[in-house]
Amino acid sequence: MSERDVRDALEATGVAVRGAGDEDEVAGVRPRWVALPESAEEIAAVMRVCAAHDLAAVATGGGTKLHWGAPPRRCDVLVDLCCMNRVMEHAAGDLVVRAQAGVTVEALARALAEEGQELALDVPVPGTTVGGLLATGVAGPRRFRHGTARDLLIGVTVVLADGTIARSGGKVVKNVAGYDLGKLFTGSYGTLGIIADATFRLHPLPAARAWVTATVERPVTVTVEPYVYEGKTLETTSTGVAASLHAAIPAITESPLEPSAVEVDWPDVEGPCTVAVLVEGAAAAERAKALCGLMGETAEVTEEPPPWWGLLPEPPAPDRPPGGTTNGGTGSEGTTSGVAGEGTGSTGGGEILLEVRNIPYRLAGSFVGPFEAAREAGVRASVRGSLAASVLHVALPPDTEPGRVAAFTSQLRDHMETDGEGRVVVLAVPPEAGRRLDRWGHVGALRLMQRVKERFDPDRRLSPGRFPGGI
Ligand SMILES: Cc1cc2nc3c(=O)[nH]c(=O)nc-3n(C[C@H](O)[C@H](O)[C@H](O)COP(=O)(O)OP(=O)(O)OC[C@H]3O[C@@H](n4cnc5c(N)ncnc54)[C@H](O)[C@@H]3O)c2cc1C
Q1: Is 135's C-beta closer than 6 angstroms to any atom of ligand 1?
Q2: Whole-model pTM?
Q3: Reduced to 3 states, what is the DSSP secondary structure of residue 162?
Q4: pLDDT in tens, 25-37
């Protein structure tokens, strides 16, 4: 069948279709067409044409993180959900909202704020959509208190590879019965189906918020000690995490003062870091003051978040001396660091970003790992993220030589994954470096994930190859 015939088939669905351009590339792979459906039924019509003509489809929301994950093995149709941008139902009395996947999280927040409510997820990149938020499994600082998208999701409507529309909690579709679609689709990177809409549990907007910030001058210290072996004196090094952090973090997270988030900004792993704690709700200022006592002499309370709060890390600036400033000292002054098109957090241009997960009591590993790996690989690294939930993001300068990116990743895994507890995932990396490393590391549930993929998308037409094991 000719190119023209396929396009005619797509257009016969009644869905707006256009030819794709450079700006529609998915991690460097250019689709042939862009389809702009306006409803779940229209997505289904597009997917049926894809099934009939063996076309591969990738969904997109705001396009802010389309370069994350491995490039798709093929991509014929980009299913752009920008027209599906309606808040369908806000049952304020029940603290529930249902929104189409293409609604931006900002637009949703505005609508909810009118009723004094919020979706308690922090989404730092303007333009992020509900669908993209779920598909990438994102959660910011308040995941510590409110959980992640998975926890706040009540239901989803998805369109499967064959055009079937399935709703979790509602109509049971024969071939998906037994699966919790919401949980399955959160973090699936578009590989199982296309999210059409989602229903979330909401929270009342807190009456007040306060932040406590404190600086730790040398979070990681290296001590050289003499060591005698077979009569010879050798030198060994030991690395430690500042005693103040070791004591403060567990004390804060377990405190009855109930912080909502405990975050760190460490703009250069050779230098100081800032720890910031969020307190929300009744008597926030008083509770924040009480937390100061746990955070040392540099602690101070503010009513505004630090400029880096809830944003992805920016890499250390090339001209900055090691051990540079904290608090937005990564070139993000003015809170613009996460704005689409600015900084490396959202442009995709050469972004090198890793996600490190640890178990909360391995605080030392979360600091020592990036520090040691950066030294061993000879790179500069910045770290930002959630100490309370032990999910940190690490950024390297975009011009880091590909071999060093691979070396850093492997060193970091050596430090973090030794006992199978920590995980290091390369979220974004330029193509050449991407070819030299394993993005996902060891994925214990890979066989199970592959079986789920087989069940949902046996012909591998949905974002093929984006996920571990070629899923
Ligand atoms: C503290 C902090 C944490 C952050 N954490 C993360 C994080 O952990 N992960 C993260 O991604 N971002 C994170 N962000 C960035 C931001 O939230 C992402 O930009 C956002 O998730 C992408 O949304 P989008 O609408 O632009 O999706 P897009 O960039 O358009 O798409 C992202 C992915 O989702 C798929 N997709 C999009 N819409 C759908 C749909 N309707 N159905 C099926 N698949 C779809 C796409 O194919 C693609 O694989 C974080 C920022 C910070 C710092």
Answers
A1: yes
A2: 0.85
A3: coil
A4: 999 999 999 999 9
